[in-house]
Design a protein that fits this description.
Helix 1 packs across helix 7, helix 1 crosses helix 8 and helix 5 crosses helix 6. The strands form five sheets. A three-stranded parallel beta sheet has the order 1-2-3, covered by helices on one side. It has a three-stranded antiparallel beta sheet with strand order 4-5-8. 30% of the residues lie in helices and 16% in strands. The two termini are 31 Å apart. It is of the alpha/beta class. The protein is elongated and about 65 Å long. It has two domains: 202 residues, 3-Layer(aba) Sandwich (Rossmann fold); 94 residues, Rossmann fold (3-Layer(aba) Sandwich). It contains eight helices and twelve strands. It binds glutamic acid. The site of glutamic acid has 7 residues, from loops.
């Protein structure tokens, strides 16, 4: 599994699942897309478990995901990272955000602001309810507006994060929130390329704001079309999408399907071929340009 890590690689990709349930076809497509993009570039591919919300992450799910990735031949580099062990780094980042006025404590409850659709920033200049447990929020109204960046598939993006609200970066129960943890770890692990599902495209403005405030460099972004179930909803653990197998023989036709869903037109003759052969062919022929820029698509 572990190749030696070179000191300054040009490409570092990652797969960062939340271990709240086994991988399904939708998460497999994201994993295969990000793996191929990294390997075709001769880059590294890291595995990071985003297990910051323990009640949502049943014990042993990380092992299940690890076995599933192995069955599909998606080898990662180096040690697996667990975000549950990274609290100190996230606290350091929060302290820096506070020092530059980009974060603030907030005691408002969702019930109080939900009619606005997003949190309107009432506590920006001092917590309205200092006696309550405090969450910590990002000041989206500071810095350059709107936030712009380039997506490799969806092109130029421009979003105003104040319209999405001052997102929570540390929860009032003391748990770390995804937006902060993902940015801190991507920077700490020198990730150059983020390849993930389209559902996270509109999280990118918050993440870009955090990167700028913390002095991190800007990664490249490639958001991949989501795989939708028959009901038109994104396949997810919440709607109990079927788990992919952790057996290398059973994996073969599903890997073929994942490659089709990534518009890579894998040859039918390889449909039942060992995963290593399918991946070798897909890697040689990897063409992110072939992806059609649609937010979602149904299973073929
Ligand atoms: N942990 C996130 C998820 O499972 C993905 C994070 C990311 O790729 O930025 O949806």
């Amino acid at each position: 599994m572990t190749a030696p890590l070179s000191a300054t690689p040009d490409y570092v990709g990652r797969f960062a699942p939340t271990p709240s349930g086994p991988l399904h076809l939708g998460s497999l497509v994201a994993a295969v897309g990000s793996w191929l993009d990294a390997r075709a570039a001769g880059g590294q591919w890291l595995l990071r478990f985003e297990d910051i919300d323990p009640p949502r992450c049943p014990p042993g799910t990380d092992d299940t995901i690890r076995r599933q990735l192995e069955a599909f031949g998606l080898a990662w580099d180096g040690e697996i990272r667990y975000q549950s062990e990274r609290g100190e780094a996230y606290q350091t980042a929060l302290d820096r955000l506070l020092a530059v006025g980009m974060a603030y404590p907030c005691g408002c409850s969702r019930r109080e602001w939900q009619q606005y659709g997003y949190y309107p920033g009432w506590c920006r200049h001092g917590s309205r309810y200092p006696e309550r447990p405090q969450a910590w929020r990002l000041r989206t109204d500071k810095g350059v507006q709107p936030v712009t960046w380039q997506d490799r598939l969806f092109g130029h993006q421009s979003l105003d994060p104040t319209r999405q609200g001052d997102v929570v970066i540390k929860r009032k129960e003391g748990l770390w929130a995804y937006q902060l943890a993902v940015v801190v770890d991507d920077a700490d692990q020198n990730v150059t390329d983020i390849v993930r599902g389209f559902d996270l495209l509109d999280n990118t403005p918050w993440q870009r704001q955090l990167q700028t405030a913390l002095g991190y460099s800007e990664p490249r972004y490639l958001h991949l079309p989501l795989i939708l179930g028959d009901d038109g909803q994104k396949l997810s653990k919440q709607n109990l999408a079927t788990a992919i197998p952790d057996d290398a023989d059973l994996a073969r036709p599903l890997l073929h399907q994942a490659l089709q869903l990534l518009d890579q037109h894998p040859p039918m003759t390889l449909r039942e071929a060992p995963v290593a052969d399918q991946l070798a062919h897909a890697c040689q022929n990897w063409s992110p340009q072939a992806l059609s820029a649609t937010p979602g698509r149904t299973r073929s």
